[in-house]
Each structure stands twice: as C-alpha cells, then as structure tokens.
Write a structure and sequence with these properties.
single chain; Neuraminidase; globular; NHL_repeat; TRIM-NHL_E3_ligases; repeat; zinc ion binding
C-alpha cells in the first residue's frame, strides 16, 4: 500500500472512537490505545507509516499503530489449497497426533510442504509433524498459552499467545512482540499480505460481544465467529455491525474461508466440522457430528481445522487431546 492510500485509509477510519487497548511494540511502532475488543488489524507492509486498519464498528477493532514495514505471505486460507466445493470425506478419521504427544491442542496450520503445526497450548509450545511422520518435533517452547498461529512462505511464524502477538523468524530461538492484549484466541493474515487480524477474548467478553476466531477472504472481507453461534462478515472498508452470514450454529471455534466465500467451521457445540456455501446460511456437516466421544467418527470440542494440499481435513480435537485426519474421497472433478 502506498503512502497516499495509507493516509486516505487512516483519515477514513480515524473518525472512529474505540475503547480498550492493544499496544504495538518494536522499532518504528507507535503505541495506540484503542480497541473494540473482537478483532485487531495490524498493518504489516506500510513501511512504518502510521495508518488505521479496517474499522469494523462495535464488533471488531480498529487500528493499532504502525509495524516495522515487514511484508508477509499468506496463510493458505484464500482458495489456494481448498478442496472442491462438492468434496466429501471418509466417515472415520485417523489420529495423526495423539494424547501421548499433546494436551488440549488449539490452532493448527499446514504449510506448503504439508507439515502440520500445532499450538500445544497447555504444554506452552508449538509442535510440528512432517507429512508422513508419526512423531512430532518441538519447534519452540516456553510460550504463554499459545492458542493459534500462522506461517508465511519464508517460514516466519506469528503466534497468538495469551497476552501478546509474537513474530518468530524461521529458526529463531526468540520472538518479537508485535502487540499486547488480554487474551488472544486467533490470528489470520489477509491475502494481500498487509494485515494480521486477531481476536481478544477478554476485551470482547467485557463488551458482551464475545468472539472466537477470525478469517479473511481474498477480497479483504473479514469473518468473525462468535460464541453466540453466528458468523459475522464485513466487506472491505465496511464499518458498522456487519452482516450475519451464519446464525445459530452453536459454539464455533476455528473458521476458514475459500475464494468462493465458502466457510469451513469447527462447530465446537455440535462436535463436528461444517461447510457453509456462500450466500447460504445452511451448514452441512462434512466430518463427525455423531455426538461427543473419542471414536474415529466423533470429536469432542473441536478447536480448529486445516486442509493439506491433497484436500485431507485435519481437526484439532481439543477435548480428546488429539489431531484427527479425515481423508478426502477422490471422486470430484470440480475445482474450488
């Protein structure tokens, strides 16, 4: 984003009056107090120029100063690695990481090499599982309740820890704090590599607008999964209350969105993974949904989901302290 556009956006969003705080830290970063508590837009590639991010009314946060001018690549959440719209998955999953290696896992991420990364929050660490392996390896530990993560194409990892958003270059033994909050639950990158978005549970809880996770589509629209069973969408540069695109689904956790606007949701309350096509509020179960349990066709409070490049579905099965893989049924010729 050039300086003119940055200034224009800053002027446009500067009319908002946020509450709470989320302070950006680091070289070239200006601390800024102001948050609506649900989602926070952190500018990534503006060359250090102060600007406001997309303001989302009383439901999603506004800007928080300027970053160091880093440019990051995207999480594969933008129609790159998603399966066909008519894809189906096997009814029974395979446990790829069990309770002997993790405890109540949070967010998961799969990179371009199909390596699975896991926020092993109650063991205060990030683990990875190479494709085809059965044993995880430690990426980093000593973290503060890591709940979610994203990784760019150069291997830089961004972690939503309990009270901070941190940046970890590939191979680094220490991270940089990009911002602080009260209890971060999720982190996402936009498709133009301009912003990180996070959700802050404690601030939104105080405002009675509790949200769990956030996703951004390739057009810059933002989706926020809320504890009340709704998913709310804001188009790029849209403010106000947003539009409810999914309602009364149950307690929702991790969400992803493809290039068509199709949502994939970890339906914690329904112990299932569901798919919602763009323009529809009807959720279709694509995995589990057979009650609470630890059988291969069951989940217990699923927290997040991710797809590998083959279309296989991975689920962070929080209540069972495992990660499940539902293998895709190869039968469709359509593309998402």
């Amino acid at each position: 984003m050039d300086a003119t556009n940055a200034a224009s956006r800053a002027a446009q969003m500067g009319k908002m009056t946020p509450t709470g705080n989320f302070n950006m830290e680091g070289s070239g970063v200006k601390s800024y107090s102001g948050s609506y508590g649900v989602g926070i837009g952190v500018p990534l590639n503006n060359g250090g120029a102060n600007q406001s991010s997309l303001g989302l009314g009383a439901s999603v946060s506004q800007n928080f100063g300027a970053s160091n001018g880093y440019r990051y690549s995207t999480k594969p959440d933008f129609g790159v690695d998603f399966p066909p719209l008519d894809a189906t998955w096997q009814k029974e999953a395979k446990t790829v990481v069990g309770s002997d290696q993790i405890s109540e896992p949070g967010g998961i991420f799969i990179d371009r090499h199909n390596t699975l990364f896991i926020a092993d929050q109650y063991n205060y660490r990030i683990l990875k599982l190479e494709y085809g392996s059965v044993k995880t390896t430690l990426v980093m530990d000593g973290l503060d309740y890591p709940d979610d993560l994203v990784i760019d194409s150069e291997g830089t990892m961004f972690i939503a820890e309990k009270e901070s958003l941190t940046r970890w270059p590939k191979g680094a033994r220490s991270g940089t704090v990009l911002g602080r909050a009260q209890w971060l639950l999720s982190v996402a990158l936009d498709s133009k590599e301009e912003y990180l978005y996070v959700t802050d549970y404690m601030t939104s809880y105080k405002l009675n607008k509790t949200s769990w996770s956030v996703a951004v589509d390739e057009n810059g629209a933002i989706y926020v999964a809320k504890f009340d069973g709704n998913v709310v969408k804001w188009k790029k540069n849209e403010s106000g209350k947003g539009k409810i695109v999914v309602d009364q689904l149950g307690e929702q956790r991790g969400i992803s969105v493809d290039s068509h606007g199709t949502l994939y949701i970890a339906n914690c309350g329904g112990n299932s993974i569901v798919r919602v096509l763009a323009g529809s509020k009807n959720a279709t179960i694509i995995a589990a949904g057979n009650g609470i349990g630890d059988a291969p066709n069951q989940l217990y409070n699923p927290d997040d989901l991710a797809f590998d490049s083959y279309g296989n579905l991975y689920v962070s099965d929080y209540g069972n302290s495992r990660v499940q893989m539902f293998k895709i049924n190869i039968k469709s010729s359509s593309n998402s």
